[in-house]
Description:
The protein has helices spanning 13-23, 31-41, 44-55, 61-72, 90-102, 117-125, 164-178, 182-187, 200-213; strands spanning 3-6, 27-30, 81-84, 109-114, 127-130, 136-138, 156-157, 191-195. It is of the alpha/beta class.
Amino acid sequence: MNIILFGPPGGGKGTQAYNIVKNFNLINVSTGNLLREEVKKKTDLGNEVKSLIKKGILVSDVIINDLIKKVLSNEKYQNRIIFDGFPRNLNQAKNLDFLLKKYNQKISCVFSLQVDKESIVKRLIGRQNCSKCGLIFNKFYNPADKSDHLCDPKFLLKRSDDNEKTILSRFDTYLNITFPILNYYKKQNLLHEINGMINIDQIFKEIQRIMVSLDA
Ligand code: AMP
């Protein structure tokens, strides 16, 4: 089964991807994480995209499509993918369909997490990512403590694009460029809209309920 987690920045995609990975035999493919890895390793690609990520500007479709092609052509990922943060525009969605066909795969469903702008800003301002285990916390609403986070607090980092100016620009990009592609998936009967403002466990229960009802 391949699924798409769709939603605004800070909509909870990373958190739910983590829950899905723990409970299903799937692999999280976050294009944002793949790009940040390149930045960390200071590769040519990383150097090329670093300032775009910092400013919250989408990187080129050529770069993204190339990353996705590497994933889809890799047997390890065959029918086991959670797409997180991809596709971000119609061109990427169409290219995904082209590649899925080429590698004899399909999308089983698209979960769209709905969260309002005010909550997004509050969530992202307080977001902390553990650079060691990958867990995501929030300084205000869901602070890491010893019962749910075993790594040293020094690994909890704020992302370079989680500042108010960039958050607002990322949200605008989401509304104007990314959100419209939901229609593309609605027409294919793949779309499941989820209230992303209820608590994390309840959201996951809803996702789980839908996933177990799908054939593959
Ligand atoms: P994310 O971790 O999904 O919030 O992505 C962080 C940043 O990485 C975005 O603001 C973009 O600069 C870049 N990025 C991630 N995924 C994509 C994508 N599918 N298309 C274009 N840019 C992306």
